[in-house]
Amino acid sequence: MKILSVRGLAFLALFALLAFVGLKINMFSIQGTGGKAFTLFEFFGPMAGGFLGLAGVAAVGIAKITAAIAGGTAFTWIDLVKLTPMMFAAYYFWRNGSRGLADKLGIAIPALAMLAFWLHPIGQQAWFYALYWTIPIAAKFIPDRILWRSLGATFTAHAVGSVLFLYTIPTDPMLWIGLIPVVAVERTIFALGITASYLVFTNVLNAVDTAYEISKDINLEKKYVLQLQD
């Protein structure tokens, strides 16, 4: 990708605007965080990596920091916890083409998260919670499909976020155990949202590409373009 191209920057600006709006719309609360909530951003944030590569990963972090500053609120540990996971999710989404051990970081992140969880005294008592993070690892060893990629991305974010919460916020084993069914529903919804938003954006940008050839500046997976029958 030509990071500094005019069209690349235009898409980056559009994504930043959408991210800013998405970060302002709370969807449902994060249990055990005193009122913090997941936002609409979780439903489309990782796709930035798919379109913009490394620039998309950086854009996720910039969007979250900018939203916090614009909101006039102090940047807390909770905000840091919510910032980092989405950047890792965008990275995972970006590296979708690397299968198996070719994407060592994509595999190492959830693997290290599991290890960190099991090393914590509280995590040891709810060790099976971390087995969710085998999903992004397993997704690297099966044929790439947008839904599996989205699941891998959202569970990568979940792995990083959970470990950061575990080490920075007082919790107990029953909280983690009680979250197991919640996580299944929550992450499935996020994965479906990421999948849907990526398909929509791919088709919209493909339509734009016919006139402005933006595929020279952003990554467009033509296999996800819907073919209308005459």
Task: Write up this protein.
The chain has one domain. The protein is built from 9 helices and 2 strands; from the N terminus they run H-E-E-H-H-H-H-H-H-H-H. Strands 1-2 form a two-stranded antiparallel sheet. Strand 1 and strand 2 form a beta hairpin. The radius of gyration is 18 Å and the shape is globular. It starts with 5 loop residues before the first helix and ends in an 18-residue tail after the last helix.
Distinctive features:
single chain; 230 residues; mainly alpha; two-stranded antiparallel ribbon; 9 helices; 3% strand
| Low-pLDDT segments | none
The percent of residues in helical segments reads 55-70%
| Chain oligomer state | single chain
N- to C-terminal distance: 33 Å
- Envelope shape: globular
Short description:
With 230 residues, this protein is mainly alpha-helical. The protein has helices at 6-23, 47-52, 54-70, 77-94, 104-119, 121-124, 134-138, 146-168, 173-212, and strands at residues 26-29, 37-39. Strand 1 and strand 2 form a beta hairpin.
How is the secondary structure organized here?
Elements: H1 6-23, E1 26-29, E2 37-39, H2 47-52, H3 54-70, H4 77-94, H5 104-119, H6 121-124, H7 134-138, H8 146-168, H9 173-212
Antiparallel strand pairs: 1-2
Helix pairs in contact: 1-3, 3-4, 4-8, 5-8, 8-9
